[in-house]
Design goal:
By secondary structure, the protein is an alpha/beta fold. It contains eight helices and 15 strands. Helix 5 crosses helix 6. The two termini are about 40 Å apart.
C-alpha cells in the first residue's frame, strides 16, 4: 500500500504544475486522500467486510467530497485533480495513469445487478463536469471534454465532446487539439458546431497558429537545404504565454 502511495504522489508532479513538494501533496491534495481511503475500503471489500468497506468509503466522502465505491477497481497512478463532486460507481473499472477532474461522474444507467458502470482504459483524461454513464468503454489514451455526457463507447486515442458526446475525428480538429496542448491550453471542451463567438475566436486562433507553424517548418527546411542554420532565430516562435488564451475566456 505504501509503495502504491509513493507512486501516486510521484504521479501528481507529472500532471499538476502547482505541486511543490511530496509533503504538500500528501497533506493538501484531496485526490490523494480519496485514493488512500479507497485503497483501504477496497481491501475491506475484497475481504467481504462489506459494511466496513462502505463505512470507510463514507468517511472518505465526508473528508474529501469524493465518493468512490469500495467495489470499484482502480489501477495505478490514479489522479483526481481538485476532486470535489467526483462519483465513481461500484462496477467501474479504471486503468493505469487515469486523470479525473472535479465534478466527474462514472455512473450507471440501470438498476439491474451486474456491470453497469464505465470501464476506462490506461491514460484516459476526463474533463471537469463530464458524465460517463453506463457499462461503456473509454479506450486507452482517450479524452473526454468538460461537461460532456458520454453514453457510447469512445475509441482509443480519440476525443469526445458535447451532450450527447460525439467523437472529434477530423484532421483539422486533431491538429487544433495538438496545438492547444503545446500552448498550455486545452480546447477539447469546445465543439466546432457551437455558435458561441468566443469558441469560434479561439478556434480561429488555434487554426492560425497551426498554419503559422506549418509555414515556419517549411521555411526552416528550405533554409537548412541552403546551408543556413536558423535554430536560434526561430526558437523564439515557440515562446507563447499559455495564460494568453486563459485571459480571453475569463
Amino acid at each position: 500500500m505504501f509503495s502504491r502511495l509513493r507512486e501516486d504522489i510521484r504521479s501528481v508532479f507529472d500532471r499538476d504544475p502547482a505541486a511543490r513538494s511530496s509533503w504538500e501533496v500528501l497533506t493538501c491534495y484531496p485526490g490523494i486522500h480519496a485514493v488512500i481511503f479507497y485503497r483501504l475500503a477496497h481491501a475491506f471489500w475484497q475481504m467481504r467486510l462489506f459494511w466496513l468497506g462502505r463505512f470507510t468509503s463514507q468517511l472518505g466522502r465526508f473528508f474529501t467530497g469524493i465518493e468512490i465505491h469500495p467495489g470499484a477497481v482502480i489501477g495505478r497512478r490514479f489522479f483526481i485533480d481538485h476532486g470535489m463532486g467526483v462519483v465513481i460507481g461500484e462496477t467501474a473499472v479504471i486503468g493505469d495513469d487515469v486523470t479525473l477532474y472535479h465534478g466527474v461522474t462514472l455512473g450507471g444507467t440501470s438498476w439491474n445487478k451486474g456491470k453497469r458502470h464505465p470501464t476506462l482504459g490506461d491514460g484516459v483524461v476526463v474533463g471537469a463536469g463530464a458524465q460517463v454513464l453506463g457499462p461503456i468503454s473509454i479506450g486507452a489514451g482517450a479524452k473526454v471534454g468538460s461537461n460532456a455526457v458520454v453514453i457510447k463507447d469512445v475509441p482509443p486515442g480519440s476525443t469526445a465532446v458535447g451532450n450527447p458526446a460525439r467523437i472529434i475525428d477530423n484532421e483539422q480538429a486533431q491538429r487544433r487539439e495538438e496545438k492547444a496542448g503545446k500552448l498550455g491550453f486545452s480546447a477539447y471542451a469546445l465543439a466546432t458546431g457551437q455558435d458561441d463567438p468566443l469558441s469560434k475566436a479561439i478556434h480561429g486562433l488555434l487554426d492560425h497558429a497551426v498554419e503559422t507553424d506549418r509555414r515556419i517548418e517549411l521555411l526552416r527546411a528550405r533554409l537548412e537545404e541552403a546551408g543556413v542554420s536558423v535554430e536560434d532565430e526561430l526558437a523564439v516562435a515557440d515562446r507563447f504565454d499559455p495564460k494568453y488564451l486563459s485571459k480571453i475566456v475569463d
